[in-house]
From TrEMBL, chain A:
Coiled-coil annotated residue ranges, if any: none
Alphabetized Pfam families for the sequence: GIDA (PF01134), GIDA_C_1st (PF21680), SAM_GIDA_C (PF13932)
Record bears the keyword tRNA processing: yes
Protein name: Mitochondrial tRNA translation optimization 1
Listed Gene3D superfamilies: FAD/NAD(P)-binding domain, GidA associated domain, C-terminal subdomain
Superkingdom assignment: Eukaryota
GO biological process: tRNA methylation; tRNA wobble uridine modification
Annotated InterPro entries: FAD/NAD-bd_sf (IPR036188), GIDA_C_N (IPR049312), MnmG (IPR004416), MnmG-rel (IPR002218), MnmG_C (IPR026904), MnmG_C_subdom (IPR047001), MnmG_C_subdom_sf (IPR044920), MnmG_N (IPR040131)
From TrEMBL, chain B:
Protein name: GTP binding protein 3, mitochondrial
Cell location: Mitochondrion
GO terms, molecular function: GTP binding; GTPase activity
Leader sequence residues: none
Primary localization class, coarse: mitochondrion
Domain of life the protein comes from: Eukaryota
Keywords: GTP-binding, Nucleotide-binding, tRNA processing
Encoding gene, per UniProt annotation: GTPBP3
One GO biological process term: tRNA methylation
Lineage of the organism: Eukaryota, Metazoa, Chordata, Craniata, Vertebrata
Family: Belongs to the TRAFAC class TrmE-Era-EngA-EngB-Septin-like GTPase superfamily. TrmE GTPase family.
Domain (G): residue spans on this chain: 261-338
Domain MnmE helical as annotated: residue spans: 165-495
Record-linked InterPro entries: G_TrmE (IPR031168), GTP-bd (IPR006073), GTP-bd_TrmE_N (IPR018948), GTPase_MnmE (IPR004520), MnmE_dom2 (IPR027368), MnmE_helical (IPR025867), P-loop_NTPase (IPR027417), Small_GTP-bd (IPR005225)
């Protein structure tokens, strides 16, 4: 494996460290026990080493905070607990944005990916979904090596017993202030100005399989201490809810009859996630395929006959509607075929991940069920599937910086906020880490607008609407989808990330500046090339330019035609355009969307203005001398929105519900 | 009855509105030169700002870049004649037919020295409904002009930093514009045949959008066939055709009655119909001692102190097993939701639930009328009055007797001042203006739907954008549609896994 690795370089920047097979020993040098901690005071402590925790720790360190990452097992830092894949439609947008802010997951995906494809290829570049199947080992190794080589970041193995709290800083809003953590092994407390909790499914987590339940957040890991949960509920008085999720059984690859499934090949040319990478570690021809198969009526029968043995599915805790267990799928939509993807777990792994077969019945029933699926008719289960139920903190109690409003310095990110998915966790982790670092360094919090990023949409949805089921990103959640594209995440975020936020390295910043300047030059060149339609036809041949009299078109107009590529223009006008060939695709995308983005700009500016208009927390809505109904006054009084835009959102939410009730009443009559 | 205003609260409000963040910089390629977007918060807006109802002089306000065009085309003020902030007596003409609509004063306020901070104009015209309607229609026929949304002048002024940020009214108005006015407007559209038509279009359009969004967000991993899009194609075509037909229909659907809507609502046998008859001085509604006599909404046009009003008598609010009466109660509630000005309650049944119902309306728009004072003893009455004084948050209360006409003068005075306040409120929306607004939004909706067809085969994100814009336009009439609502439809119609 190691022999085939070449360091990938983009403009002299060496992003991939070559990893040797002796990797674990390299790890040991950095792992520490509490008694050996070099210091007992940090700026930021991050609890948890999943997707949110790793991004948070790295981001806090990047903004300049001395950071400690505490996790139960160093070995599982960066583990992919569920599906071995990254990205997708909407989620891929988040990966690109995390990468644009110098986060880890994009580069880790490029390192660990073994099957790359761009979803939605035929539906328009604004909704392309970059996605990759991952090698679990490689992903973990990359994340660990990145963290352990990040300056100002220390990793500690341990379990957190409780949060240390004190009186709030009277200059800032809040009822408490966090001062550090106490570890379970009774060693002395570790103090910090900020604490980021990324406990995932471990907060009062229970595992479900058949009729047995056991405490825990992931199979094979110890449950987290009850102390933390107690602190959040009892001492901080935070409202918590309960959600559930699940994972499918892992199947022994050799026992699968692939001739009965249809092969799904990756893209011929893998597209990297990261703006810094020009190609992926995996060579195009080394990529592994996925397989597609379907459920049969037999599957439905097994589910129905085993319901009494399945206590997870009988409970009414909210599970996700879009990633349902096979049980809820067949119960909600009976009599249908459901897709099952058979995905590789890694280059050298003997296991397969059956996407779409998350289940919680007893192991022997699980085996019966999967054998009802043709390619799995003699399949063996390596690890059975199971369900998890866990507490989440209602995210409306957080600020747009992901800080708990009532507790200064306490930040939450990932599943603890009611989201699901690696990408959603990574995005929140990064932003919570940035703000935790800034709080510790006495810098003001920063927020991302929903007009500039999917991360902004995600956080705004969480803090202003809350969740009723595990929250997942979809492109349909973004109002300005045609502007917030995967291709331009660097221009949207990298520059701001360096200039205003401080979480982007100067190396990446310089690259983004170069890209921005080159694109501007290229666009100017395209716009300045103005020719009559007839001349364009002479130069380019028949490309479907409509014949309107006396019409003149510039290069940008031409690029909007389906049949015209930037390469064609470059070969016709090599002096003008060939210097910009590196950006062919981005220029073509820009040409298509530019007019629509212009139309959206005014509305975006309006939203940004309203997002930035803050309302005083002690406003007396009940006696505001304007025409407002008692109902509106009471809602505003109860919610106490922090900005004008939040007040509108909250009211619209309440009213759309009451409108729906009103309509429902009408239907009843 | 406005709640008392504590000066202390507002003194601290001077720093209420501070910009908390540096406005995010639009960098790189997305910083584009402005193209006036019809569907966004742009363009030139106009509205009758003196409120509707009979008045001597009506003021029509125009704000935005095309203000000078309006002055040139309708008042003949060419560039050389424009004098800032000076009233000029001009003939006001229709830009197309050149017909003289009125003679009145016109003013020009070049930005930024205007209420909204933009170029603005004012037309002071005669207050008759015909003149007002003609001038508004003429303005609407000019390119780049559209009727203002509820509260839009205030919002523009606010964003231009023109509403003194230290003035609390400015902030209150903004919250009102952003919430209450829009909601009331949407609720008003939900009644009647026209409302049902818009609702039907909205729900069909929502479904179209949900199916396109499902195809974008899930089809790569899930079983969503291309056939879904073919269904959307058909639906979008149908919707476009229906809306175009509706726009061409000269009858313009149901005529909106002009005047302030006054709704009489309350428990059965409280004497609502008696009050209507007393007010219009003729037996317009059947009156009987049997509870539930009035079933349908009975409307009467009335002039109250110079203001046109439409008085509606409604079925008494109670749970009834009778189907017809239930429908009557539903209509009564619907009417109350639209514009509740006046509500009648039976003196003996001052239920808590009634008070709750009342509290959902601005108190200045309600009157609590307690009828049948002739039937209670003086002692009882004093007890009640003490009780009323003690309970806070109540609208103004009138004690009357339709039998003896006791207290009727006071009630009329209270009703008159309530209507006067309402007519002076430009946010309440004159019917003619409402129609023009509907037309503008429907036209935008149709235009946006053609974007769907244009990009259907090349770029589904842009095609979906067309449906989104169409739904936004329609939503300006029927109420906003959020992303969650679309997702709800997706999950109801498709089995989505990963």
């Amino acid at each position: 494996m190691a022999a085939s690795i070449e360091p990938l370089c983009v403009h002299g920047c060496r992003r991939f460290v070559t990893l040797s097979k002796t990797f674990p020993s390299f790890l040991l040098r950095f792992s520490r026990t509490a008694s050996h901690l070099a210091r007992h005071k940090y700026d930021v402590i991050v609890v948890g080493g999943g997707h949110a925790g790793t991004e948070a720790a790295a981001a806090a360190a990047r903004v300049g905070a001395e950071t400690l990452l505490v996790t139960q097992k160093i070995h599982t830092i960066g583990a992919l607990s569920c599906n071995p894949s990254l990205g997708g439609v909407g989620k891929g947008h988040l990966v690109k944005e995390v990468d644009a802010l110098d986060g880890l997951c994009g580069r880790a995906g490029d390192w660990a990916g073994i099957h790359f494809s761009i979803l939605n290829r035929r539906k328009g570049p604004a909704v392309w979904g970059p996605r990759a199947q991952l090698d679990r080992e490689l992903y973990r190794q990359f994340i660990q090596s990145e963290l352990l080589s990040t300056p100002r970041l220390t990793v500690l193995e341990g379990s957190v017993e409780e949060l240390l709290l004190t009186e709030p800083d009277p200059e800032e809003p809040g009822h408490h202030r966090v001062t550090g953590i106490r570890l379970a092994n009774g060693s002395q407390p570790v103090s910090a100005s900020s604490v980021v909790l990324t406990t995932g499914t471990f907060l009062s987590g229970s595992l479900f399989m058949g009729q047995t339940t056991s405490p825990g957040g992931r199979i094979g890991d110890a449950p987290s201490s009850a102390g933390l949960s107690h602190t959040l509920r009892e001492r901080l008085g935070l409202r918590v809810g309960r959600l559930r999720t699940g994972t499918p059984p892992r199947i022994v690859k050799d026992s699968v009859d692939f001739s009965l499934a249809s092969l799904h090949a990756p893209d011929k040319q893998p597209t990297p996630f990261s703006f810094l990478n020009t190609h992926t570690r995996c060579k195009p021809e080394e990529q592994l395929p996925c397989y597609l198969t379907h459920t049969t009526p037999g599957v439905e029968k097994v589910v129905r006959e085993s319901l009494h043995l399945n206590c997870h599915i009988q409970q009414d805790t909210k599970g996700p509607r879009y990633c349902p267990s096979i049980e809820s799928r067949v119960l909600r939509f009976p009599g249908r075929r459901h897709q099952v993807w058979l995905e590789p777990e890694g280059l050298t792994s003997d296991l397969l991940y059956p996407q779409g077969l998350s289940m919680t019945m007893p192991p022997d029933v699980q085996l019966c069920l999967i054998r009802e699926i043709p390619p799995l008719h003699r399949a063996e289960i390596h690890t059975p599937g199971y369900g998890v139920q866990y507490d989440f903190v209602c995210p409306t109690q957080l600020s747009p910086a992901l800080q708990v409003k009532s507790t200064q310095g306490l930040f939450l990110a990932g599943q603890i906020n009611g989201t699901t998915g690696y990408e959603e966790a990574a995005a929140q982790g990064l932003w919570a880490g940035v703000n935790a670092g800034r709080w510790a360094l006495s810098m003001p919090p920063v927020a991302l607008s929903r007009t500039e990023s999917y991360i902004g949409v995600l956080i705004d949805d969480l803090v202003s609407r809350g969740v009723t089921e595990p929250y997942r990103m979809f492109t349909s959640r973004a109002e300005f989808r045609t502007s917030l594209r995967p291709d331009n995440a660097d221009l949207r975020l990298t520059l701001k990330g360096f200039e205003e936020v401080g979480c982007v390295s100067s190396l990446r910043y310089q690259e983004a500046v170069r890209v921005r300047d080159s694109l501007q030059d290229a666009l100017a060149a395209l716009q300045s090339l103005v020719l009559p339609t007839s001349s364009w036809k002479k130069i380019l041949g028949d490309v479907g330019i409509s014949e309107t009299k006396n019409s003149i078109l510039n290069g940008m107009d031409l690029l909007q035609y389906n049949n015209v590529s930037f390469e064609m223009l470059a070969s016709a006008f090599p002096e003008r355009f060939s210097p910009h060939l590196e950006f062919s695709q981005r220029l073509e995308i820009e040409a298509i969307y530019r007019p629509h983005c212009d139309l959206q700009r005014k509305e975006m500016e309006r939203i940004q203005r309203e997002e930035s208009l803050s309302l005083p927390p002690d406003m007396d809505y009940l006696s505001l001398p304007v025409s407002l109904s008692q109902e509106v006054r009471e809602i505003l009084d109860r919610v106490r929105p922090s900005t004008v835009s939040l007040s509108t959102k909250e009211l619209n939410l309440v009213f759309s519900q009451s409108n729906q009730q009103h309509q429902a009443q009408q239907l009843l009559w | 009855m406005l709640p008392s205003i504590s000066a202390g609260i507002w003194r601290g409000a001077q720093h209420i509105l501070r910009t908390s963040r540096v406005a995010p910089r639009r960098t790189g390629l997305c910083t584009c030169a402005g193209i006036p977007g019809e569907l966004c918060d742009a363009g030139t807006i106009f509205a009758l700002s003196s409120g509707h109802g009979r008045c001597g002089v009506a003021v029509v306000r125009v704000s935005g870049p095309a203000s000078t065009t309006a002055l040139r085309c309708m008042a003949g003020l060419t560039h050389s004649l424009l004098t800032p902030r000076t009233a000029l007596l001009r003939s006001i003409t229709d830009p197309q037919s050149k017909e003289v609509l009125d003679r009145g004063l016109v003013l020009w306020f070049p930005g930024p020295h205007s209420f909204t901070g933009e170029d603005s104009a004012e037309f002071h015209i005669h207050g008759g409904p015909a003149v007002i309607t003609a001038v508004l229609q003429a303005l609407g026929s000019l390119p780049g002009m559209r009727p203002a949304e509820a509260g839009e002048f205030t919002r523009r002024a606010f964003h231009a930093g023109k509403l003194g940020l230290t003035e609390v009214e400015g902030l209150g108005d903004l919250i009102h514009a952003e919430t209450e006015a829009q909601r009331r407007q949407a609720l008003r559209q939900m009644c009647g045949d026209l409302g049902r038509l818009y609702q039907d279009w909205t729900s069909r359009l929502k479904r179209c959008l949900a199916h396109v969004e499902a195809f974008i967000d899930f089809s790569e991993d899930e079983l969503i066939e291309d056939g879904v899009l073919n269904q959307v194609d058909t639906s979008v075509c149908d919707l476009q055709a229906e809306m175009e037909r509706h726009l061409k229909d000269e009858r313009r659907g149901e005529r909106l009655r002009s005047g302030v809507q006054v709704v009489i609502a309350g428990a059965t046998n409280a004497g609502k119909s008696s009050l209507l008859n007393t007010l219009c001085q003729r037996p317009a509604a059947i009156v009987s001692p049997i509870a539930g006599t009035t079933r349908d909404v009975v409307e009467t046009a009335l002039d109250i102190g110079g203001f046109p009003a439409v008085l509606s008598d409604t079925a008494g609010l109670r749970d009834s097993p009778d189907l017809v009466e239930r429908e009557g109660v539903r209509r009564a509630r619907e009417r109350c939701m639209c514009v509740c000005v006046c509500r009648l309650c039976y003196v003996m049944h001052l239920f808590k639930s009634d008070l709750l119902f009342l509290s959902s309306f601005p108190s200045e728009r309600c009157l609590l009328v307690l009828n049948k004072t002739d039937l209670v003893s003086e002692e009882w009455r004093q007890q009640l009055e003490t009780e009323l004084r003690r309970s806070s948050g109540l609208p103004p209360v009138c004690l009357i007797s339709c039998q003896t006409n006791e207290g009727l003068q006071d009630f009329l005075a209270a009703l008159h001042s309530s209507i006067k306040a309402l007519c002076g409120d430009p946010l309440s929306g004159a019917p003619s203006l409402t129609q023009a607004r509907h037309r503008a939004h429907l036209q935008q909706c149709v235009a946006a739907l053609s974007q769907y067809h244009r990009y259907r085969d090349t770029d589904l994100a842009l095609a979906a954008e067309g449906v989104r814009l169409a739904l936004t336009s329609l939503g300006r009439i029927t109420g906003r549609v959020g992303a969650e609502e679309i997702l709800d439809i997706i999950f109801k119609d498709f089995c989505i896994g990963k």
